[in-house]
Amino acid sequence: MKPPETEIQTPEEILKAILDESRVMIHVIDPRTFEILYANRAMRQEFSDIIGRPCFEAIHNRSIPCGHCMQLPFSKSTQHEHINLNNGRIYLLHSHSGQWSDGRKVKFQIAIDVTEQRLSPEGIMLEQNQMLEVIKALLDATIEGLFIFDRNQKCVYANHIALNLFGYTLEEVHSKSILDFIALGFRNKVKRFSQNRDQPPYEVLGIKNDGSLFPIMIRGKAIELGEEKFRLSAVIDITKMREKENELFQIKRYDSLTSLPNRRFLEDLLKKSLHTSHQNGCYRALLFIGVDRFKLFNDSKGHSFGDQLLYEIAQRLKAATASMGALARFGGDEFTLLLEDGSKSEEQIRRSARQSAESISKLLQAPFVLLGQSISITASIGIISFKETARSPRTLIKYATSAMHHAKKKGCNTICFFEPLLQRRFEERLELQEDLRDAIDKEQLELFYQKQMRVNEQAECMGAEALLRWKHPARGFISPLEFIPLAEEGGYIHLLGEWVLKHALQKLQKWQKDPQKSHWRLSINISAKEFEREDFISNVQKNFNQTPCPPHRLCIELTEGILIQDPEKSIQKILALASMGILFSIDDFGTGYSSLQYLKKLPIQELKIDRCFIQNILEDEQDQILVDTMIGIGKKFNLNVVAEGVETQEQLKKLQSMGCELFQGFLFSKPSPVLSAE
């Protein structure tokens, strides 16, 4: 009974079986390590156990690499004679570099025994023909489509990848020219490159057997086998690569949510527009459109709702502005419109730009219906007209943005043209913002403290409020009313907040060692943007770990606006911090969106009446009523009530008559970096 034959299933196993049957000696070398990765049966019989050994040792009987071991460029072919010192046989070694099926760069070597035939041209020709057949087998193991053309530029072989790529059989490609596989418009290019011995990679359109075109990359090498000359051409289908590039182009140049051109596309468009306007002397205009109060919609109704609203805004703008110019989504809730129909008159382009802006403004005021809800919005629009090339695209965008921000400051739903004076203010603001970013590292920040007093028969200090001050090296002290919004806009308000918390705890720690101040508490203000951060609680805990002090001596002042933006999250954070022992105060009570709900739900210890109600309390009867009401609310909820901005004895007496006992203001102390216990 015959033993069962071994099944050969994979192409690699089939190839190895074919090569083992050949009497031509074949082996494969790793050009980096010189290790022999593969040797067929004939090679193993001649040189014994050589797989895994360096080629210079196993074949050439050397202890170091020789010149023939060096790595060859892709498809480079060489040949030389070698004498096997063990048996005196002479071999013609043919070396060829290429790529293995797993992607590795390798060097193929084919050894032909020419001891008997070296003086016989017919014998050498026979061996070379056998060697060409072996090369064909090796080419089928590569990952590229490969063709071999003879000296007459006729195809003598194509591997299976090349055949599948172009849709031919081996018989059909026989005697075809390389140009038969190339689209008509690219054949001259191929002819030029084919004249070079070594062809660098270049791109053309290939043509398949069915006539369809597809992008390919070609590279090639001239090779010689004895007297015969051949050209080896490698072909790669780059269709997927081009599709990926187009996809990346879309990602880079178009907004994924609205499919509108994005900021990068806009900058390129502006660059071309500047060049054109300079050539024909025509003015153009850029409109910068900012949706008013979009953050309020986004925060109150969720980001999915916000995205849907932006999408609907984009669709409405796209339909309405198609005849006006080029629309783009700049980012977030901001859009731009470039008016490309130029005018020789700046007055005329400004008139046209205003008409377009008014049309857009009216268009956006019509209600949007989303998820069964009717939403009404407005937009603030900044406009800049331009002609000269001295202004770059980014400068134009900056100026238009400046005009839009100015429109928002004027009350929203407003149109504003860029003016040089506006830009000077805008640039000063940007410069100040950059200076503020560096103020922490340059030690320009400082905490001032203003006493908070309890006044009955006597005045007693119960603590202080920490007030952040910035001493600019050139401008001196800058008001927090000016630099806090800058930090919020710049996205680094949390850095200022962390700095304040760190130094406030250090001050509390110091007070604990002073018997006269150990019972004092310290209040700090927290920005809404800082409080919204996911890591706010962990940052507070981290600072307490680094600077241990009694948590109940720290009072965090929050504005009413913080509590209504995301009530559930706000409640969770306040409860978490209150569980640590931290106190809470509602700052500027009565100036925001007052709601008694959070007074009932939250562990709040204090209300602070804003100074705007205190200033005219002696003359304004309405202020008196409001303050009296707020003090009454505080008492009903068993909360402390602090009156801010108390500057005169008369104001103090009036507030005391209303039942207020806690005060803060210039009457008792001005903000100072040092506080005495007196």
What would you say about this model in short?
This protein is an alpha+beta fold. Helix 11 (303-321) packs across helix 12 and helix 16 (493-511) runs parallel beside helix 18 (536-546).
Explain what this protein looks like in three dimensions:
This protein is of the alpha+beta class and about 675 residues long. The protein has 24 helices and 26 strands. The strands form five sheets. The chain has an eight-stranded mixed barrel, surrounded by five helices. The protein has a five-stranded antiparallel sheet with strand order 2-1-5-4-3. Strands 7-6-10-9-8 form a five-stranded antiparallel sheet, sandwiched between helices. Strand 19 and strand 20 form a beta hairpin. Helix 10 crosses helix 11, helix 11 crosses helix 12 and helix 16 runs parallel beside helix 18. It starts with 10 loop residues before the first helix and ends in a 14-residue tail after the last strand. The N terminus is likely disordered.
